[in-house]
């Protein structure tokens, strides 16, 4: 994966991806997870989610 092209394509799909992640993570139980506006790569996202659920 080329870094430069992936960041450009991510910029276009960001809102949709972010909405999907928030939907999946919160699962309608009212426990939202803060995801930075500037979406990190999937590994970083997973780390954010893991930390969030460890704190619960």
Would you mind describing this structure in some detail?
By secondary structure, the chain is mainly α. It has one domain (3-55). It is built from two helices and no strands. The chain has helices at residues 3-26, 42-55. The protein is elongated, with a radius of gyration of 12 Å. The mean pLDDT is 60. Residues 1-40 are annotated as: Disordered. Residues 1-10 have a biased composition (Low complexity).
Distance between the termini: 35 Å
- Mean pLDDT across the residues is 60
Q: Low-confidence spans: pLDDT under 50, at least 5 residues? A: none
Structural class by SSE content: mainly alpha
Provide the succession of SSEs: HH
Count the helices. How many? 2
Q: Could you say how many structural domains there are in total?
A: 1
- Strand proportion, as a percent range, falls in under 5%
Region (Disordered): 1-40
Biased composition (Low complexity): 1-10
């Amino acid at each position: 994966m080329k870094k430069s092209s992936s960041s450009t394509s991510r910029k276009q799909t960001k809102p949709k991806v972010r909405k999907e992640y928030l939907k999946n993570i919160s699962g309608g139980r009212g426990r939202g997870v803060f995801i930075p506006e500037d979406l990190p790569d999937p590994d970083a996202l997973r780390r954010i989610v893991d930390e969030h659920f460890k704190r619960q």
